[in-house]
Specification:
Two copies of one chain form a homodimer.
Chain A (H helix, E strand, L loop, with lengths): L15 H8 L4 E6 L6 H14 L4 E5 H4 L11 H20 L3 E5 L5 H9 L7 E7 L2 H7 L4 H6 L21 E4 L5 H14 L6 H4 L1
Parallel strand pairs in A: 1-3, 1-4, 2-3, 4-5
Helix pairs in contact in A: 2-8, 4-5
Chain lengths: 207, 207
């Protein structure tokens, strides 16, 4: 006992591969991008539920749990949008390190911001970009939160698709058109991508 | 098919209680605070390993994975330290919502900053403050990263305990004195607290 015990501060870490092997699947960020009303959050939550039912470790980051908390200090200027996405990318990376399939549902309108998140990934395949493609007029017709109406009246400035740009992905891993596909079809498409890509097996099983 | 499918965007969420019931234990933030060299990170990683071996879902947030990533834009001024702790508290809250026992290992020198994290918790008992108590001279003698030497020479400004204040907790849930206890004893103390507090059973089991 005493001070001598403090000399041996041997650090051991439970690593990502330990956690993935224990869980039986890989971690990755499944990054949804698309206009407001395109269905990002709905699809992300349905994929989350499907993975949960399979006993996987998944989690959704979206406006509800991020914009009011961690990023509550940020607005919607281009600089704040970029910082918003940067932080979300870093948090997603922590969840991936913890072995999660983390689903992020944010408009994330700038290609450069999304590519930056892609590039901080630890391993190839850690970042799966899902383009939730839906024509503006369909999104505006849905307008689930009445935001397009407010954007058109000028009550909300810098609104993506109306008064701020949206840069569609050029090489998304997955594209789903929610004007033509049902929610179930989009979820099936994403789960199939994960299965075919080996995400739903642990790396130790694959070796 | 077609646009009609988009009308029914029924949102379902897998909730925290679902995840806790599935895992068989509760989520909580175990917040370590103390001087540099007091042993926060070592203890947090050992508790993490112990929980991992028990099949629990735990994860460590510390300087290694947070300071260079999410909070890489922040320095060590009082304002930046406050923002550092605020963001870490919000990220820990996300992990708790995902059902994790998340261990945070940061000096977190200001009482007000730690209390703010305590106060954003969703449920009573979500925040467990662990004071890693160790006299400054012992920490300075250990000086595992050579930081005290640099702080004394003035090479590192605003160094907690030397040129910046440390405000010890007044009502920490757990206090461990690492000048007198071995790492194993401190880990035992924390695991026992979790067991006695019902954290290692799921809420559904308790009802």
């Amino acid at each position: 006992m005493g001070k001598s015990t403090n000399v041996v501060w041997h650090e051991t870490h439970v690593g990502r591969s330990d956690r993935e092997a224990r869980r039986g699947h890989k971690g990755a960020t499944i990054w949804f991008t698309g206009l407001s009303g395109s269905g990002k959050s709905t699809i992300a939550n349905e994929v989350d539920r499907r993975l949960y039912e399979q006993g996987r470790f998944s989690y959704v980051l979206d406006g509800d749990n991020v914009r009011h908390g961690m990023n509550g200090d940020l607005g919607f200027s281009p600089e704040d949008r970029t910082e918003n996405i940067r932080r979300i990318g870093e948090v997603a990376k922590l969840f991936v390190d913890a072995g999660a399939l983390v689903l992020t549902a944010f408009i994330s309108p700038y290609r450069e911001d999304r590519d930056r998140v892609r590039n901080i990934a630890d391993q190839p395949g850690d970042f799966i970009e899902v383009f939730v493609d839906c024509p503006l007029d369909v999104c505006e017709e849905r307008d689930p939160k009445g935001l397009y109406k407010k954007a058109r009246s000028g009550e909300i400035p810098n609104f993506t698709g109306i008064s701020a740009p949206y840069e569609a992905p050029e090489q998304a891993e997955i594209t789903v058109n929610t004007a033509e596909m049902s929610v179930e079809q989009t979820v099936d498409t994403i789960i199939e991508y994960l299965r075919n890509g080996g995400y739903l097996e642990s790396s130790s099983t694959q070796d």
